[in-house]
Amino acid sequence: MLEKTLLIIKPDGVKRKLIGEIIKRVENKNLNIIEMKMERVTLAKAEAHYEVHKEKPFYKGLIEFITSGPVVLMVVEGENAIEIIRHLAGETSPTKALPGTIRGDFSLDILENVVHTSDSKENADKEIKNFFK
Ligand code: CMP
Questions:
Q1: Is residue 104 domain-resident?
Q2: Which of 10, 54, 58, 123 to mutate to test the pocket of ligand 1 (most atoms within 8 A of CB)?
């Protein structure tokens, strides 16, 4: 199925100059980046984006981190883009993220994990609406 998903290069990924590396992986897979921008996420948009994690013990740190510096937001489109981008990103847990994935190759940390990717069609639609008109 042709899908759209949201991929965010988080503040740690931007600081570590991984923007090109991540775009390269998305394009190598032959997915299409149909929208892209760099900006600092506002508190309101961060809270909307991570609403499902509101009650989690790591929520406050998560909001502080995602608003701590510029991010790159992109809408990626392709056949089964949601699941494919999740596979390119790798698992959230640094011990489970396999080498060859973005997190497996570039992150040791469960919070500062370089990228965010939508995990379902419903969330992808919601997340894209939050960041792109
Ligand atoms: P993301 O894919 O953006 O979705 C939720 C984020 O919460 C996740 O990536 C991590 O950055 C963060 N996260 C998930 N679990 C934990 C945890 N146990 N401790 C700290 N941060 C977490």
A1: yes
A2: 58
